[in-house]
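Feature request, filed as a ticket because there's no other form

It would be nice if the structure record came with a short human-readable summary line next to the tokens. Right now we just get the raw output. Example of a typical job, pasted below so the devs can see what we mean:
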Amino acid sequence: MSKTTFIEAQSQDPVEQALARKALRLLNDPSLQRKQRIDLVRQVQCELLQHRQRQQHATLLREQVRALALPEGYRVVNVQVRDGRVQVAASSRSSFTWLDAGPAPAGAPARSTEGDRLPHHTH
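Raw output as currently delivered:
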């Protein structure tokens, strides 16, 4: 049985906690051969890095959206990246529009949707 601990198990992020538990289960699985165990733990490491990268991109998008000057009375209802551009869906009581918020942050996926994970601010 492995006595390895993962700092991610102490994280506030439930995804990181789950990945730490998954890695520990793999390390303690007696049915796995050494090579299988190594390969599977490396996959978990890749999942962790991808998760952190997605979080970083979402943070950059949130900052970009917060800096956008919305028309008076509008609020953000959705954000997406299309063809390398950040597009913000904004609505007011009687109207809906898409606004271009500029180029997507470097390294952001060419297409993604952030939806409700981004701030709903009004101006």
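Something like this underneath would help us a lot:
The CA atoms of residues 9 and 17 lie 4 Å apart.
The longest strand covers residues 75-82.
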